[in-house]
Amino acid sequence: MLALVYRCGEALAQPAAAPIPEEPAPVERSPGRAPGLRGGAPLLHLGARDNALRTSRFGWTTSATTDIFGLGGEQSRVDGERAGMSFSLAPRYSFVSTEEHWAWVGTDVALALELTDSDVPGAAPSPAGSDDVSGEDAVTLADLPLQAAYNYTFFQDGRGLVLLGGPRLAVVLPTSAASQNIGAYARTRLGLGALGNVRLLEGAWLNGAFFSAGGSWEHLFSQATTPVPDGAHRPRLSPSGEVLLDDQLSGRFLERDRLSAGLSFWVNVWGDLSVGTTWGLGAGLRDSPSEGGCVETLTGCVSVEPRGSSTTTVAYTTFGVSLSYPAADIAWFELGYDNTTPTLAENGQRRSVFHSPGAQLYLTMTLFLDSLYAEATAPPSEQQAAAR
Hints:
By secondary structure, the chain is mostly beta strands. It is built from four helices and 21 strands. The strands form four sheets. The chain has a 15-stranded antiparallel sheet. Mean pLDDT is 79; it is low at 23-29, 75-79, 119-130, 132-136 and 230-250.
C-alpha cells in the first residue's frame, strides 16, 4: 500500500506503515480444565491441575439389570431382576502436581442400596464371579481402598494432545460384609495405566478423543482357601434374626489372584457431548484343592477327599457403552450399559461378551470436588470469564 504525502505542493508516494499483527486467540480454559481438552472424561481422570484436591469427586449411580426392562431372556441367576443405587466419596490429595509429575494418595468410601427384593429375605445378590456368599442388609458398605499413584507426563502441547502414565498401588481393607464373611484379611492391587487425549477436528464436531488403558494384579489375603463363616451353605437365621447365606461346606475355593486389563475411550461427537466404550478382560485364579489327608477323630484318622470344582482359572469379560455430558465443568452425567460376566456360566454355557443375565443399564452423576474448589478459589477476573 502507498500513502500520499504533500510537500511543497507535490504529492509524494510513501509506503504505508505495516499493520500490527493480531495476537492469537487464547485457548479456552476454565479453573477446572486443562487447556485444549473437551468432554467430561478429562475432568474425571486428569482433574484440575495445580489443585491439591485433583480428581476428588462425589458420585451417585442408579442401575438396574436389563431383565427389569424386558431386555433379558435368560433367568439363570437366582436373584433374577435387580436394581440398586450407590453413593461414593473419593477424596484425594495431590502432594505433587506439576507439568511433568503428578502423585496422589486417596481412598473411596462407597455405600450401596438395593431397591429390589431378593428371593431370600435379607440376602442381596452378589456380583458375577465374586466370592460373596453372605446375605447383606439393604444398605451395605463396600471395601475401603487405600490408594497411591504416580503419573509422568510424556507429552502435552496445550492444544489437546496429552499422554501420561504410571503405576498405582492399593491396599483394600475388608470393611464390607461380603469380605468379612469369607474371612478376608485384605486385598492388594498393583497396576500400571496410561491416559491420553488427542485433538481431532477444529470446531464443535468430533473435536477430540480421550482414552484410559491399563492392567492390574490383585491378591487376596484370607484365613483359609475357602469361605470360613459359621454354618453351612443354606439360608439360616443368624443370632440377630437376619436370614444369611454362606458356603463353608460347599467346597468352593476362593479367588486368590486376579489379572485384568482394560481400555476405555470417549469421542466428543459434538461440543462436550461424548460417546464412550469400555472393553476389559480378566482372569481369576482360585486356590487348588488339597491332595487329601486325614482328620484326627476320637476313633482315629479319617481320610478327607478333596472337594469342589477342579477349575482353578475363571475368565471374565467387560463391555460397555455410554453417552455423557459435563455441566459447567462441575458435574458429569453419564447414561450407559455395562456387561461384566464370566465367560462360562455355572451350567457350562458360554456367555456373550455383549449381554448376560447380569447386564445392567445405569445413570451416573459425578460431582468434581476439585473443580468446585478451583472455582471457589479462582481470582474474581477468572470467575467472571468462566461465567461468560
